Amino acid sequence: MRLRLPLLILLVWALTALCADLLPLSPNHIRLEHILDPPGRAAVLGYDDLGRDIGARLAVGARTSFLVSLWVVGLSLLVGTLFGTATAYRGGWWDRVAVQLVDIFLAFPGILLAIALAGLLGPGIDNVVIALTTVGWVGYARLARAQVLSLKHREHVQAAEALGSSRWRIMHRHLLPLMAAPLIVEATFGIAAVVVAEAGLSFLGLGVQPPAASWGAMIRDGTRYLLVAPHMVLAPGMAMLAVVLAVNLLGDRLRDRLDIRLVNDTGLRE
Amino acid sequence: MLSYLLQRLFGACLVIFGVVSIVFLLIHLVPGDPVEIMLGESASGADRTALRTALGLDQPLATQYLDYLSGLLQLDLGTSIHQRQPVTDLLLERLPATGLLALATLCVTVLLALPLGIVAAIRRNTAWDSVAMGISLLGISIPNFWLGPLLILVFSLWLGWFPVSGQGGPAAVVLPALTLGTGLIAVLSRMVRSSMLEVLHEDYLRTARAKGMGPARVILHHALRNALLPVITLLGLQLGALLAGAVITETVFSWPGIGLLMIESIQSRDYPVVQSCVLLISLTYVIVNLLTDLAYAWIDPRIRLGAHA
Known about the structure:
Distance between the termini of chain B: 11 Å
Number of helices of chain B: 13
Mean pLDDT of chain A: 86
Number of strands of chain B: 0
Number of helices of chain A: 10
Shape of chain B: globular
Helix content of chain B: over 70%
Order of helices and strands of chain B: HHHHHHHHHHHHH
Largest sheet of chain A: none
Strand content of chain B: under 5%
Radius of gyration of chain A: 22 Å
Shape of chain A: elongated
Low-confidence stretches of chain A: 262-270
Strand content of chain A: under 5%
Number of strands of chain A: 0
Order of helices and strands of chain A: HHHHHHHHHH
Mean pLDDT of chain B: 84
Radius of gyration of chain B: 24 Å
Oligomer: heterodimer
């Protein structure tokens, strides 16, 4: 249906990210005669304050955001799901302590803890991944817990328990497959959040360090030349907005598709 | 009601304790010697020892923790390394700016999100609805460190309506508030829309119309008042997230609030100040959430009176 454009955008993003090294780009090549040149024939998106090709930097920035979001969402999903599933299935004190821990992490609003962590750990792409994962796993843990609580008294789980299946086997074979849909939806939205968060940290100067490129760092550099070279801010922002919008649209559609319960609940909506 | 109150208070205390502990641990979780990072390579051994003693880092961890807690209870957050002032003074100095920004953002949000959501609900499945929800989707997706520069470009540089940055006069708060509020406007207008849609089918609205009440009065007096409950909750819950977003927005606009203080302190490696900023923002978030929960229980007669019965 209307998913074609979002999927195309995401495909371009992924391909650019994966092929950025192979393409004949020179994102760090400084050409002093072109400083702040607007988009033209030589460079479709113009040049930045050091005379570097913005198009090439955009491609390398795409790789930064793609890799970071893949790592952060992957790690968060893994840690959060394992933690939430294991503690909720054991129940009792395990569950109570886990809930308390999750509540404490959720008490830090938004990206604040990530900013503090990235700031204290020092700049660098691996520290960005650590900081964002530290903040990100909690959401998946909470979701996994809610799922397990509603699933663990189902008959097929009880049957597996009666048959003497091990805990791991029950979690792995009887719980996780049923929990996958909501977790996938959450992870999809998570990608958009991480793309923005990575760019935000880089904007604050806490992400990747020059000369490596990130959309957030490009925006920060551009804000100093807003009046003379607005294209420096516009290009990376547009790219990021396109990716985030595409991911959000995809997530909306996935949610409607996969989460049957949700569709019924909000049947009022449409 | 009382047991609910006590339960929530106890839960909040546990969370606050956890938050304080994590903030305390932040400085110790960082690999390497914090003193070395703060002072840099060139510092002399004597300086290092002096700073280590001043921060209490030569004490065992448990002692440091207890000192930190007892300091907190006396509102003593330590001393800034660079400014050589008590951190509490620094925070108090910056607090009004952030407070003003938060207040202005709330006003802008309510003024824009309510009409947007109401129109989308009343004119459901029309172009009005699509436009309002399109704006909302855009608002969720647009990061404020990009929106801020865009607004500066259009409204400050091209049109010249507002100052570029800083705190010069009442007009200066408009762009930061709009930047900070966009995400909230988007979420809130969706919430207003869906809770209005739920209410619009209720019998009491039909009754109100049947007795000849004008459409505007039906919407504002009967529908909106009942639809507002979840909206108020959401607003309260999002206020803390707003403060976190203020870190970026304040940086964009050089707005001299807590958020900018935090970024400045990260850059100057002034760890006690960074810790205190995180602590202040997070605790505000926890407390606002708690108050929202309690207010929700109190406002909704179904909960308040139900508990008495």
